[in-house]
Design brief:
The complex is a heterodimer of chains A (109) and B (116). Helix content of chain A is 0%, strand content 53%. Chain A is mostly beta strands and 109 residues long. Chain A starts with a strand and ends with a strand. The model of chain A has no long low-confidence stretch (mean pLDDT 97). By secondary structure, chain B is mainly beta. Chain B has a 6-stranded mixed beta sheet with strand order 2-10-9-4-5-6, with no helix packed on it. In chain B, strands 1-3-8-7 form a 4-stranded antiparallel beta sheet, with no helix packed on it. Classes of the chains: A mainly beta (109), B mainly beta (116).
Chain lengths: 109, 116
């Protein structure tokens, strides 16, 4: 059973920078895992933010960026805004199937 | 931007088959090279990937659900569908359809409750 692990919760101050990570139980995450990132606010459907490691959708704010960091996929928010408070999910590709991480609840305080 | 909308029964009895349809608007489901996916989320819990179908019709499924899941596409109606057999209360969730990749979009989700 493949497990994708994210930080359960993180807190950041407005205007600050925070990095969320996404680890695989199979080992180092590479671009071959095609990491995707999603944002979900309470009562709403998830929204795609980043695809294939670092590519942004047309609606993705510039302050969001995706990368590979220390053997994990990473989502960095620079200049955090209050509206960035949400649950963030990563998703990795395993030869046909995709697996979501458990999500990171980001609090802006 | 392409839009997706889930539809189907909101209540399914245990042991029966859950059937949902995702209608795509603002673009053709058969144009481009996209994966069309189903994802679910039990109340208060995280996201679970169910499976996906490629524009060509090839499919892949979550191994834990594979024996019960079928995803198909109807290009004439610009729709793709999910069938999940032998449902139990554990299958109660909000079900989302989505398009993967660039400009990936999600439907708003539909709640399916499994109960007698």
């Amino acid at each position: 059973q493949t497990v994708v692990t994210q930080e359960p919760s993180l807190t950041v101050s407005p205007g600050g920078t925070v990095t969320l990570t996404c680890a695989s139980s199979t080992g180092t995450v590479t671009s071959d895992y095609y990491p995707n990132w999603f944002q979900q606010k309470p009562g709403q459907a998830p929204r795609a933010l980043i695809y294939s490691t670092s590519n942004k959708h047309s609606w993705t704010p510039a302050r969001f960026s995706g990368s590979l960091l220390g053997g994990k996929a990473a989502l960095t928010l620079s200049g955090v805004q209050p509206e960035d408070e949400a649950e963030y999910y990563c998703q990795l590709y395993y030869g046909g199937a995709r697996v979501f991480g458990g999500g990171t609840k980001l609090t802006v305080l | 931007q392409v839009q997706l909308q889930e539809s189907g029964p909101g209540l399914v009895k245990p042991s029966q088959t859950l059937s949902l349809t995702c209608t795509v608007s603002g673009g053709s489901i058969s144009s481009g090279s996209y994966y069309w996916s189903w994802i679910r989320q039990p109340a208060g819990k995280g996201l679970e990937w169910i499976g996906r179908i490629y524009t060509s019709g090839s499919t892949s499924y979550n191994p834990s659900l594979k024996s019960r899941v079928t995803i198909s596409v109807d290009t004439s109606k610009n729709q793709f569908s999910l069938k999940l057999t032998s449902v139990t209360a554990a299958d109660t969730a909000v079900y989302y359809c989505a398009r993967e990749g660039a400009e990936g979009s999600w439907g708003q989700g539909t709640l399916v409750t499994v109960s007698s």
